[in-house]
Amino acid sequence: MDHKGMDGMMMMMQMYFTTDVEVTILFKRWHVKNVGELIGSAIFVCLLAIFYEGLKYFRDYLFRKEALNEGNLNEQRTLMSRLTHRPHVIQTMLHVVQFVISYFLMLIFMTYNVWLCISVALGAGVGFFLFGGMRDIAVHITEHCH
């Protein structure tokens, strides 16, 4: 089955790993054309994956902190007051940011560019090394694509 792009040219998704320098990352305007741009993009992707791991830890930290505060207050709240409670609103916003970043990282990996895939994996590893030891073992509610 042929799929035609908007300009009439045949568009096929690459389904194999490649070491090509030229790659489009997430957005049409983020088109890497040379080694320097690829290295810069790989560093940015690695930092994004580290940030993602840090965000998971930070959300766990906020969750534990709020759970301790709620336990100390021992008050019953209505559904509306729970939904509009400031810590819940902050957690919701952070969840959305984490969700978007997780899918960005997945889509970057799906470029099948070896250098970008290594950057995602390396960033996830470094991020887990830096933040994973601080996470509560019992609370892993913030995982998304992996």
TrEMBL record:
Topology of this chain in the membrane: Multi-pass membrane protein
Instruction: Kindly give the InterPro entries that the UniProt entry links to this protein.
Output: Cop_transporter (IPR007274)
Q: Which Pfam families match?
A: Ctr (PF04145)
* Transport recorded as keyword: yes
Where would you find this protein in the cell?
Membrane
Which chain regions cross the lipid bilayer? 38-55, 89-106, 112-131
Going by the UniProt record, its keywords in alphabetical order are:
Copper, Copper transport, Ion transport, Membrane, Transmembrane, Transmembrane helix, Transport
Family as reported in the entry's similarity comment = Belongs to the copper transporter (Ctr) (TC 1.A.56) family. SLC31A subfamily.
Q: What is this protein called?
A: Copper transport protein
